[in-house]
Amino acid sequence: MSRDPSSGGGNPKSIAQIFQLNSLADLDKAVETLLSAMPARSLVLISGPLGVGKTKTVEVFLRKLGYEGASSPTFALHQAYKIRTRNVESQVDHFDLYRIESDDDLASAGFWDVLEKKSGLVFVEWAERLTGAAPDGSRKQTSRSFFAPGWEVLFLNFSWNGQSRQLEAHWQAS
User: Fold this and answer.
1) Buried b (16+ CB within 10 A) or exposed e, 144-159
2) Average pLDDT for consecutive 10-residue bins of the chain (174 residues)?
3) Cβ(58)–Cβ(85) below 8 Å
4) Which of 170, 165, 135 is nearest to 50 (CA)?
């Protein structure tokens, strides 16, 4: 399934659900469900323990959008992927905040610049490390909210549930 990220998607406020992930096929279905309602300007904040599947989730999103070969930006902090759907090229940004040590690291990785764009899809792994405010004081995160004007924010929180993984998805309109 390939989707044009500029097309808008459905109503993100209608999605607040929990997915049980016992296999990669379950993750595939969860991502399809989320993508079907994802608006053109979406910020996806992903949290969860080490090894739970944050990078794999981004890889599945990108594959569904037609991009193969995504990798974790753990050491670079930021990867940008060019995708083409319906002869329209767009960029997907992927941040991994595991190694950030300060707000200066966010700025030097271009995080705040990416949020100034008028459209796009942005994934942030280790979103729980994104605290405090933007340099201009306009964006702040709490445990379940992130203020980013004009962006639809999707929180994906992974946890272990016995033998399987659980993914909680919660939309917040900015």
Assistant:
1) eebbbeebbbbbbbbe
2) 43 67 92 87 88 90 88 81 81 90 84 85 87 49 56 83 80 66
3) no
4) 165
On whether the 15-173 domain is CATH 3.40.50.300, my answer is yes
The alpha-carbon radius of gyration of the chain (Å, integer) is 15
- Contact (CB, 8 A) for 124 and 45: yes
Q: Under a CB-based contact definition with an 8 Å cutoff, are residues 77 and 97 in contact?
A: yes
Dist CA 5 CA 102 (whole Å): 31
Q: Is the pTM of this model over 0.90?
A: no
- Angle at which helix 54-64 crosses helix 24-36, to 10 degrees, equals 60
CA-wise closest residue to 116 among 13, 43, 38, 39: 43
Q: CA 41, CA 144: separation in Å to the nearest integer?
A: 19
Q: From CA 154, how far away is CA 58, in angstroms rounded?
A: 13
CA 98, CA 7: separation in Å to the nearest integer?
31
Closest by CA position to 95, among listed 109, 107, 116 = 109
DSSP-derived 3-state class of residue 165: strand
Separation between Cα atoms, residue 43 and residue 61, nearest integer Å: 13
Q: CA-CA distance, 60 to 37, in Å (whole number)?
A: 16
